[in-house]
Amino acid sequence: MTNSRKMTEHLFFRLLPIQILLSAVGSVNGIVSSLFASNSIGAEAMTAVGLYAPISMFIGAVSTMLVGGAQILCGKYMGSDQLKETQHVFSLDLILSLFFSLFMSVLAALFGALDLTDFFTKDPVVRPLFNQYLLGQAIGIVPMVLSAQISAFLSLEHQTKRTFAASLVYILVNVLLNFLFLAVFHMGAFGLALASSLGFWVFLLIQLQYYLTEKALLKLKAVPVTGSGIGGIVKIGAPGALTYGYQAVRNLIVNMLILVYVGSMGLSAFTASNTLLGLVWAVPTGFMAVSRMLMSISEGEEDRQTLTDVMRTVLCRCLPLMCAIVAVIVLCAEPLTKLYYQDPAQPVYQMTVNGFRLLPLCMLPAVFVMNFTAYGQISGKQILIHVLSVMDGVVCVSGFSALLIPFLKLDGVYVANILNGFAGVLIFVIYACLKKKHFPRTLDELMVIPEDFGAPPENRLDVSVTRLEEVVRLSEKVQQFCLEKGVDQKRSYLAGLSMEEMAGNVISHGFVKDKKNHTADIRVVYKDGMVILRIKDDCIAFDPAERQSIVDPEDPVKNIGIRMIYAMAKDIRYQNILGLNVLTIKI
């Protein structure tokens, strides 16, 4: 394994825990709510929670569209060092999110208060509970949507500790309020929803504090809400997010099928198993969130190697991890069921056990599908993602469920979800076969990375250094590379000198700041007559521009190397992206 890939894997798993936690926050809310609902209110309350799922999924779909499009755009702009454009997307995304969430809050409140929910259920017992639940949820839609956006941008600014703290506080507040509202004040379905809504407000406020400080790179500013600005976010974010929108429709269809063929206890079992498994879904969702961040930045940098390194990490490291997690869930099906229902003689008990045994299996193909979908969004494969959204979101699960549920009852819905996952994998393989005119032989071909993406191998030099003695040889390699590309002697010498000075500075100062093992990933690209040097390292944040302006009267030669490079190079730019130092020098 190359040092470059090791750095990618290290960064991937450093970012992964907080992304899993972020994905799990909503699921923890669902689990806490469902446990209190089933044990404090009754099975009818579980049905009300299940009926809200399509609405929650629709809100999540739009939120995902906004955060996905904005994060990918910001990643590309940060990768190509366009801070002004990054700032504009950040502000526009938050403005759009606020407008949308306010609209949905008002709509949910009206439907619940005016009893306009006969479309969802006509059950005289469940419907009043659902109305109360809607009213409570309406209070938390705004912070839920805004929190998703803020969390994504905090990750880009390497502020995951704040999000981690906010997540833990949210979980504690949610549990405490559920206990107070249900066990102490007996507020029923309204209290159930209100607890999570107030928890989301706490979650948002803790995260939002960072953007009120001077340290924040991105600032919320008044920007024009133009059609082109909205279109840029929607165009990228919509295809992947449409899957969630279609899933909202799918949930309505599947809910109706279950109520017709199995009954309300079937929906309670389906909701119980799905709700608890939502916590586990945070793991593949976390995989996707990290890969989307890393691949969007790599797309902006036109870094072909890192693109494939990220996907190899998903397939070779994350997929085996997911297999182990799924195996544990399947083995623990009965203990998990007893969290909700204690009587094995009840039909709902066995239906829930089967859910825990079958539904986790669909997570394995989902690891592949979700990450390839993220890359499809980033690389502009709009038609492919639209087709997948329709097939994965509605057609496959609904179709397979309709075919199987008359014979297998609720198990037919579980099996339909598994078949849907493998259908998604097949769609990507077929797409690669059509584009390449043969079965894909490499990961590049399976991802369908354009042949002209990034600098061709002959115009690129990739080296990783871990020791100071390697730097001198690196300088010679860079100079020789430039000469072979027809670069004049002066610029070739300057390129070698720049790399020796800057890479040496990273190793001499950055590598010794802690006891961790570090790597400096070096890339030299010859493009359009220009030499582009890029140094990427995983040391503590350090901007060399801060030293190039420092002159010590007692030591005039201090920092002279950095000052000389800044004086002679055409352009030098530094960024700290996801905790990595990225220095780009153009000569």
Major β-sheet, in short? 5 strands, antiparallel
Return the average pLDDT rounded to an integer.
Answer: 83
SSE class: alpha+beta
Span of the ends, CA to CA: 31 Å
Account of the protein in words:
The chain is α+β, with helices and mostly antiparallel strands and 587 residues long. The chain folds into 2 domains: 3-445, no CATH class; 457-586, 2-Layer Sandwich (Heat Shock Protein 90). Helices cover 73% and strands 6% of the residues. The protein has 20 helices and 5 strands. The chain has helices spanning 3-41, 43-79, 83-113, 126-138, 141-156, 160-184, 188-208, 227-261, 264-301, 304-331, 333-337, 347-358, 363-378, 382-408, 410-436, 443-447, 469-484, 489-510, 545-548, 560-568; strands at 460-465, 520-527, 530-537, 571-577, 580-586. The chain has a 5-stranded antiparallel β-sheet, with helices on both faces. Helix 2 (43-79) runs antiparallel to helix 3 (83-113), helix 2 (43-79) runs parallel beside helix 4 and helix 9 packs parallel to helix 12 (347-358). The longest helix has 39 residues, at 3-41. It is elongated, with a radius of gyration of 26 Å. The model is unreliable at 550-557 (pLDDT under 50).
